[in-house]
Specification:
Blueprint lengths: L4 H25 L5 H33 L12 H11 L3 H21 L8 H6 L2 H21 L3 H18 L1
Helix pairs in contact: 1-2, 1-4, 2-3, 2-6, 6-7
């Protein structure tokens, strides 16, 4: 269908950034009436931000450097955001990224806040929830990336991404 691997991986990576930011808010807002959980949140929230943020940063480096080609390679991890923004602009990903972000924001507002999921949420369980997404990207980068290099075609990485992301989304919903 004319899909290219790099912009889809980049879009999935951008979605992971949104999911991580909203998950941090979920952890912060979880069970606000339970005083004993505030101590857990004081540890869980910074740990999640550091750990998930580090994975996301490194995945961004790999997505941009391995799949992005010349012009997007990252030599300094602090330049990931600039390279990602440039690539998103070059590939016209802003509408797709905005739609994905709006979808996650709506789900957060409707389900987590409006329907009251936050009242019974566990910071520990919330911390683990988005790592399935991280593992999908991790597998696509490692298996798909090496497969694409070995076979000379990015089709294998694209197929792996589509299959794993579809399975993840079906399981989540």
């Amino acid at each position: 269908w004319g899909w290219e691997v790099f912009p889809l991986l980049l879009l999935f990576w951008m979605e992971n950034v949104v999911v991580g930011a909203l998950n941090a808010l979920k952890i912060l807002l979880a069970a606000p009436g339970e005083a004993r959980l505030w101590a857990a949140k004081a540890f869980t929230l910074p740990f999640f931000c550091f750990h998930y943020g580090l994975f996301t940063l490194l995945h961004g480096v790999f997505v941009l450097t391995v799949f992005g080609g010349k012009g997007y390679e990252v030599h300094d991890p602090l330049s990931v955001l600039g390279a990602a923004l440039r690539a998103a602009s070059d590939y016209g990903l802003w509408l797709a990224a905005a739609v994905l972000a709006a979808s996650h924001a709506f789900s957060f507002a409707w389900n987590y806040l409006h329907r009251g999921e936050f009242r019974g949420a566990s910071p520990k369980a919330l911390m683990a929830r988005p790592y399935g997404r991280v593992m999908v990207l991790h597998m696509v980068i490692i298996v798909g990336g090496f497969g694409a290099l070995a076979l000379g075609s990015p089709l294998w990485a694209l197929l792996l991404l589509v299959i794993l992301k579809t399975a993840l989304d079906l399981r989540a919903h």
